[in-house]
Amino acid sequence: MIRVLVVDDQAMVREGFSALLAAQEDIEVVGTAENGEQAVRLVAERLPDVVLMDVRMPVLDGLRAAERILLAHGCQAKVLMLTTFDLDDYVYEALRVGASGFLLKHAPASELVTAVRVVAEGEALLAPSVTRRLIHDFVRAQPTGRALRARPDSLSALTARETEVLVLVAQGLSNAEIATELVLAEQTVKSHVSRVLTKLALRDRAQAVIVAYESGLVAPTR
């Protein structure tokens, strides 16, 4: 069973998402919270696998709550942020602190359920075309005076093929799409992605995207 904590300051949203997820045979809603402070406490108490977290909330917003949850010693929870198009800076920062992905709040119910399952399996929700657009917007939206960090030495540990795979991951392609692009078996691509994460000491594809952009390996689309 996938244990989920639903966090949103709107009661109707919390109840709707909880009912939808609880109706799935492989998902158990272990609690709900109306602000980030409650979420941090409940994560420690209920030990969810996935935290479905709204970005804007009172008391403690979703970004700060995600940061505290993901930095907690021994925390195994994955954070899936809920957002809208006008929150680019918030979502970009959420990915920087370790969130495993994000979903538009008005996405179809089937996408929400799929997103929870994908994140629970350790993958990042970065494949949909809407996500590619947002990733590009996040990087472009960063202050012009903020220079990209120099390419980290760890990137030199990647093989040419692994670097190629990392570039495609950063462009928002799924394993299946990368396999088609490089004419490889999907399992082979999955192995390459796993080695990239291991060599760069990253927890998932979301962090790989941030490293690829901020190191200058991939440039945002203008």
Query: What's the architecture of the largest domain in CATH terms?
Result: 3-Layer(aba) Sandwich
How helix-rich are the residues, as a percent range?
A: 40-55%
Strand order of the largest sheet: 2-1-3-4-5
- Termini separation comes to 42 Å
Q: Roughly what is the average pLDDT, rounded to an integer?
A: 81
Topology pattern, helix = H, strand = E: EHEHEHEHEHHHHHH
Strand content: 5-15%
> Do you know the CATH topology of the largest domain?
Rossmann fold
- Total beta strand runs: 5
CATH superfamily of the largest domain: Response regulator
Under CATH at level 1, the class of the largest domain stands as: Alpha Beta
Number of contiguous helices? 10
Biggest pleated-sheet summary: 5 strands, parallel
| Overall 3D form | globular
Structural class: alpha/beta
C-alpha Rg (nearest Å): 17 Å
What is the count of structural domains? Answer: 2
The residue ranges in which pLDDT falls below 50 over 5 or more consecutive positions are: 143-150
Structure description:
- With 222 residues, the chain is of the alpha/beta class.
- The chain contains 10 helices and 5 strands, in the order E-H-E-H-E-H-E-H-E-H-H-H-H-H-H.
- Mean pLDDT is 81; it is low at 143-150.
